[in-house]
Amino acid sequence: MTKAEIRKQAIAQRKALSDGQVATYSGALLEHFAALDFSTVQTVHVFLPIAEKKEPDTFLFIDWLALHHPEIRVIVPRADFETALMHNYVYAGREGLLKNAYHILEPAKGELHNGEVDMVLVPLLAFDIRGYRAGYGKGFYDRFLQGLDTLKIGLSFFGPLEQIDDIDAYDVRLDACITPEKIYRF
Ligand SMILES: Nc1nc2c(c(=O)[nH]1)N(C=O)[C@@H](CNc1ccc(C(=O)N[C@@H](CCC(=O)O)C(=O)O)cc1)CN2
Ligand SMILES: Nc1ncnc2c1ncn2[C@@H]1O[C@H](COP(=O)(O)OP(=O)(O)OP(=O)(O)O)[C@@H](O)[C@H]1O
């Protein structure tokens, strides 16, 4: 399937989830996340969920990290839709977040983070068994991840597709993808 076909299907599949399912599946994702090795992780980049689009509730991950790994810095993005680039900020609590025109919560201001990130949680609409992903189609994460030496972990409520057909040279493969059922490693 092509990314365009996949997007349509995945958006509809997610829309059909109840809020209860989103909460249950998000909890299942967190259980797998919590079993990862954080011994060399100092910084984790976490996307903030678009609740309207039934994305995984990554606040669960942020709260878990604060409790179990208070030494780990959480970095959150702010997306610039004119340039398709993301600017990254040190997470400083929910109070400082505002919703942008795309219903994405983002830091209104704060401390920019231009340093390394050891792990990136990557949003996606679908992924395949090779570790390729399709998102909303603006290439934000492909640009951000290009050349970045970091662990790239997708979060998905659904299992992998056989193949995303129209992969291009910019597409960055995930190292792993967490689903409610299991972690896929690539
Ligand atoms: N939580 C979260 N943050 C993220 C992403 C993501 O997938 N999830 N992105 C990942 O790269 C970037 C934002 N990507 C986006 C790209 C396009 C549209 C957009 O065009 N929305 C339209 C139509 C979408 C649709 O087809 O449903 C709209 O909402 O009107 C939204 C977000 C950066 N931040
Ligand atoms: N590093 C880059 N430099 C220039 N163009 C890029 C880069 N990365 C991706 N693109 C372009 O951006 C467009 C969108 O890419 P793609 O369809 O793979 O988005 P996506 O992965 O679904 O979206 P997102 O990363 O925002 O979730 C494509 O035309 C792609 O070639």
Automatic annotation (TrEMBL):
Its EC number is 6.3.3.2. It comes from the Bacteria. Keywords: Ligase. This is 5-formyltetrahydrofolate cyclo-ligase. It comes from Pedobacter africanus.
